[in-house]
Specification:
Elements (H helix, E strand, L loop, with lengths): L1 H10 L1 H21 L2 H19 L2 H6 L6 E4 L1 H15 L5 H7 L2 H10 L5 E3 L5 E6 H10 L6 H6 L2 H7 L2 H10 L9 H8 L1
Antiparallel strand pairs: 1-3, 2-3
Helix pairs in contact: 1-2, 2-11, 3-5, 3-8, 5-7
Length: 192
């Protein structure tokens, strides 16, 4: 978008504003579509973290550390995803969910996309662990904004890092408006 925004800026403020609004709308749509599966996994992890943190009010009051670690298995994520996608949002039916999401696929995604390390439980099952800091890093990487209820329970530094994540991402595009380009005729002559 940068070259188009530069040309629009040279054409005038009204043209620039129109192109900028379109660019922001386009980026917003792309943010929704890109990393859709990763965002679903982050939403499920959010619920698991929230469940563990919400039950420990004294921990929240005394100060939750960014190093606070939560452990879970791929089957835990599978159950939460099922609850979100099939039961609550009804965005997919039971059969399609089972075809699209299985615990092996979830485990691979946790390992490959999120680079979470796993260890084996005494029963031979894999368990994953994630710190609040790592979760915030993944949210930034995949442009996922957690719910306000979740952010409310987080340590101040994590909360600040995640609030208005989408706005911060998009503001990188709109930063073009503050650039001074000089005389458009001179620039046009230099270009030819």
């Amino acid at each position: 978008w940068f070259p188009l925004l530069v040309m629009a800026k040279l054409s005038g403020e009204e043209v620039f504003n129109n192109v900028l609004n379109y660019a922001l709308e386009d980026v917003g749509k792309r943010l929704e579509e890109v990393y859709e599966e990763e965002k679903k996994l982050l939403q499920a992890i959010e619920r698991i973290i929230y469940g563990q943190v919400a039950g420990q009010e004294t921990l929240v009051e005394t100060g939750l550390s960014p190093k606070f670690t939560v452990e879970f298995q791929a089957k835990d994520i599978h159950e939460v995803l099922h609850e979100i996608m099939v039961l609550e949002n009804k965005e997919i039916d039971e059969k399609a969910f089972m075809r699209q999401w299985d615990t092996r696929k979830i485990g691979r995604r946790l390992h490959r996309s999120f680079m979470l390390k796993s260890s084996k439980t005494s029963g031979g099952k894999r368990k994953y662990s994630i710190t609040l800091e790592k979760y915030a890093e993944l949210c930034e990487k995949f442009a996922y904004t957690p719910s306000p209820e979740f952010l409310e329970k987080m340590p101040r530094e994590i909360r600040k890092r995640l609030e208005n994540l989408t706005k911060r991402f998009i503001s990188g595009i709109s930063g073009v408006s503050g650039i001074r380009y000089g005389n458009p005729q001179t620039m046009q002559q230099n270009a030819t």
